[in-house]
Amino acid sequence: MNSVRIFFRTCWFQYRAMFNWATPIGYLSYKFLQPVGQILFFTELGIFATGRSNALYFALGNALQLTAINGIFGVVMSVGNERQFGTLPILLGSPANRLVTFLGRAFVHVLDGIAGVAVGLVLAVVMFQIDLSHANLGLLAMCVGIISLSTAGLGLMFGSLSLIMRDVFVIANAVYYLLLVFCGINIPVSRLPEWAQVISTALPLTRGVEAAREVVTGASLAKVSGLIAGELAIGLAYALIGYAMFRWLEHQARRGGLQEAY
Amino acid sequence: MTAYVRAAARAFEMSMKLRAVNPFTNFGWLVFPLIFVILGLALLGGGGRTAYAILGGGLLGYWGMAYVEGANEIQNERWSGTLEQIMGCPTPLAVIVVGKLCSSLLFGALSFLPAIAVGYFAFHQSLQNIDPGPFAVSFLVLTFAFFCMAVTLAPLYAMWRWAFSVTNGFEIGVYVLGGFMFPISHLPSWLQLVASGFAPTWAVRSLYAATGQPFGHDYALWWAVSIALSCAYLVIGWFLYRMVDVRARATGQLALA
Question: Which of A80, A142, A209, B74 has the fewest C-beta atoms lying within 10 Å of its C-beta?
Answer without folding.
Answer: A142
